[in-house]
Write a structure and sequence with these properties.
6-stranded mixed β-sheet; elongated; alpha+beta; 10 helices
Length: 304
Amino acid sequence: MTKHFDLLSAQGNDGYQQLIEFFPEAIIIHIEGIIVYTNIAAQKILGALSSDQLVGKPILEMVHPEDREKVLSAIMSALQTPYDAGIGEVAPSNRYIEERLLRVDGSMVEVEATGIAIVYEGKPAILTIGKEMTHLQKYENLLNDLAYMDSLTGLYNRRWYMDVFREQLDSRKFAVLFIDLDGFKKVNDTYGHLVGDGFLKKVAVGFKSAVGAHGEVARFAGDEFIVVLHSYRDRANLEQIIENILDRVEDCRELDISVTASIGISLYPKDGENAETLLMQADKAMYVAKCNGKNRYCFFSEGG
C-alpha cells in the first residue's frame, strides 16, 4: 500500500531538520500551490535573503510563464502517483524536468527539478527538489535532445518513440496515431524533393498546432508521422483532435496535387501494453483507413 511520507513526524528530530535546511539541493514545500517552506539552497537559487521572501507566494509565480503548464502537469502527476518513502515505488528520478524560475529580482535561472507528494504539518503537500543547471548539463541535454529530433521538421523522431516514449508508459489513458500522407510521392516526383521537404515542414507545423498540449508529434520516416495523445476528455474530444489533424493537411495544400492523410489509432491499454504493439496496431488501422477511401481515420478495434 502506497503511503505519503509525513515530514511532520520527522520534524522533532533536530538532525533531520538540519539535514533538510542545509541540504545542498534546493527544497521547496508547497501546499495547494502556496510555498510554505524553503531551505537555504532554494533561497540562494531564487536570490532571496531569507525564507520570508518566498513563503506565502504561489509556487507558479516563481516559474517562467512559458514553463508553467509543464510544471503544473508535473505537480498533478506527483499528486496522482505519490512517492513511497519506504520502498520507493515511484522513483523521483523519473519525474525530473527542466524549468526556468524567476528570482526575487526578476532575473531567470534554469533548474532541473522533481516533485514528490508528502504530508506536511498534517496536510497533503508537494516537496520539490531542484538544482541549478550547469553549462555542461545544458550541453549534454542539448546533445540528447538532438539525438531524438528530426533534422528536417524539428519534430521528435522514430528513436524518440522507441527509446523515450516506451519508458513513459503508465496508468494514464492515451492514444497512438500512425499517420501516412496520401499522394505525397507525387509531390516529390512532380516538383522535386526540395518542394517536398517544404511541404513536410508545413505539415509538421500544422500537426503540432492541431495537437498542442494534448500530446507529442514525431516524424517516423518519410511521409509517416506518429502522434501520442494523452490529454483528452473522452472519445468525442479525441475524435475532434484527430479531425483537426486531418484538416491541417488540407490547409497545407498549395500545389495542384491532392495530398491527404490516412490515420490509424490504437488505444492504451486496450489495444496493447507496450510501444511496439501499440504502433503495430495503429499501423494496421491506418491501412484500413487507406482501403476505405483515404483522407479518414480508423480505430484499430474497428478496423480489425
